[in-house]
Each structure stands twice: as structure tokens, then as C-alpha cells.
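Records of this kind hold a single protein each, on a pair of labelled lines. With that in mind, the following record should read easily:
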Amino acid sequence: MKQLITFTALAAAAMLLPSCGQKGGGQSSQEGRTISEILADSPVAAQRVLVGEDTMVVARLTEAPEPVTLLASEMFDEFELIKLEDTEGALTGGGTTWVSQNHILVYDGNNVKLYDRKGKFIANVGARGQGPGEYSIAPYFLTIDEMQGKIYMMTYSASQINTYNVADGTFAGSIPLVYESPKGFCKIDPENGRITVASMQFKDVAPCSPVWVQDFDGNLISEVKRPDLGITPDFSNEINPGMSSDGKELYHSQCLITELIADTLYRSDGKTIHPEFTYDFGEKVPMHSLRSFPQFYVMKIFGDPVMVSENSYMVGSNMPFVIDRTSLKGAPAELMIDQLGTLTFKKDWDFMSTPGYFTMSCDPGDLLDMLKAAPDTHPSANEDGLKRMEELRNSIDHDGNHYVLIGHWKQ
């Protein structure tokens, strides 16, 4: 393929294991292969195209390449397996997990629980209800400002950002949003008094601003107006959060469940917006999602929805397809947490609730089942990881609290 063509615009429990990678044994991430080396034998799966003044990566699958295995020791700067505290107040049903340098947040469908990075329970964050600082609609995005000691929460259909104290989870006030956000995420910059918001926007809502910058009083500083990015009002659709390696720009795409059209991954600084990655499926577009990682892009295809109750559906997904940012080679990829032997995620390892982090909250019984199902050896496994896997198999308590797996993607 040509590398550049002209193209028209497309629509108190201690940490169970030490930090792995540099410290914990196994292959060092500094000495490991890059994604370019891992995909060296894979075919070129994309090309760079000109869209106005922007250069965008457009992927198109012309053959079925062999899957590759990404090793966590090569993809992560650091990895931790953390067992959450077992006391009654600390117990969680698991669910969406957000992390920061020193803290973990877990929303289990009822409460948001705050822990430190050793798994020690700190407090419940806010509560379900209608009062100040309470949320009747579930949290959609949470982020922590360690320097200011604040937690920031955006719910579904958010008209404000709720803030809470990291020390004890108590309500610390709200910040009005310039525009209502059906689903969205934000980047907090207290030093400059700014908040950048990326939001899913519905059609026929004026002005349609998928990204804007505001101050902490709710005053607009800058915005991107793109009515063409508005979608049919339906909360089944999702917005995928991401952030550039230097933290200055946001990445986002929309997983369109009700409108099967080709999506685009955008990069924005809050003033301008740039298309960066898309996938050309041809005439028949499946349900899919696009995400940005420091070394590669990811496209994932979903299966058909399956009804599990009167008003509930389950949607399965295929193995994520990765495309190297440099060589544009691509292949389906699984992620093996080699710090834990051969524990492998063939699907959904690409989900990022916290930009820049791999996070997974696991029920102890489910984790044990996965470890028992994992093979006892693998060509890429290392001795320390296999030893830890066996130790875990023998130590997990079915009745204990959840385990949280955290990996920071190598930049």
C-alpha cells in the first residue's frame, strides 16, 4: 500500500504481588519488544490519507493475519495485582474501576468505593439519592486530582461535575457544565483553572459541541462546534475516553450501537478537533469501537445483541485488532499477563475506564477459574510468573473481596 494518498473526508489488605515489569521479575519492559517488533511479520493493514489539512490512518483488512500475543511485561511500564480489603464496609460487587497514582475507585452498581493502591478501604464516595453530592443516575466517569485531593464525577446526563474529598469521600461541591453531557469524560487542570470535556452529543441540540474547555465556574473558554458529529438520542451508544502521551490532548470516539456507520477516532485540544483513525468496512458496517493507545490503535467488532431479559441485552465482542502507529501493520491480539504466568485475556483487554491504564476488577472465584484454566506453560511465559500463578491458585479465598489488576501502558 502507498503510505500517503488523498482521501475525501469520512463521515487493609496489602498488595498481593510486588509491582511487576521492572521490579517483579520476568522480562523487563525496557528490554522487551515494541509493538512494531511484535507485528513485524503481520501485513500492512492501513494507510495514511489526507483529509483536508489532517493526516488520518485508515485501516482496511485485505487478508486474515495470524493473531499475536502481547505480553504485559512488554506493554506495561508497571503492573500490580491488588487484593481489596476484606472488611464488611470494604466489600464490593466489582464493576467499573478507575485508578490514579495513589488510589482506586470501584463502582459496583450501588456505591462508589475508594481504596488506596494497596487495597486499603478509605470510604464510600457520595451515595445514591437526590441530595447534594448524591447520584440518582450512575457515575459514568471518575477521575482523581492527587495534588488537590479531589475526586471528580460525571454521571449520565450530567449538567454538573460533582467533587469529593479524597481523604474521606465527602462531598466538596459541584462545578456547573457549560453544556449537558449525555455521556462524557473530562480532563482536570486546576493549575490553569480549566476543565476539558469530551461528550457524546445528540442530534438537533444546538450548539453541538463534542469538546469544550471551561473554567471551574462553568464559563466557556473554547469549544469545537460539529453538528455533523451529533448522533440519534439513544443511551445505548458509548463514548471511548483516551488521552495523548503528553496529556495535552484528548482522544475520543463513539461506539455507535444504534447507528451502524463508520466511526472516527478524534484528537482534540478543546479548540480544534482532528480525525486520526478510522476503519473502512466497506458497505456493511458492523457494531465496532475504536481506541487509541500510546503505541497502537485498536478496532474491535461486536457480535449481535442477545436478549437476556425483557429490557436487557448482552453484546459479545471479538478479539481486538491492533494497528501499529509507525509501520501500520496489524493483526488480532490477545494480552497475556505474563507476570501471572499464562493468564490471558483474548477479548476486552482494550477497555479503558481510565485513559492510559489497563484495569480489571475480578471476583476471586472468577479469577481462580481463569487461573485454573490457564495452561501450565507457554513459550513466552517466564519462571517467576508461572510460580506466582501457582501461588495464586493455592491462595485465593472464594469469599474474599475483589482483586484489581492494574497496568500502565508504556508510552
The mean pLDDT is 88. Residues 383-395 form the longest helix (13 residues). Residues 103 and 116 are 4 Å apart (CA to CA). The longest strand covers residues 171-181.
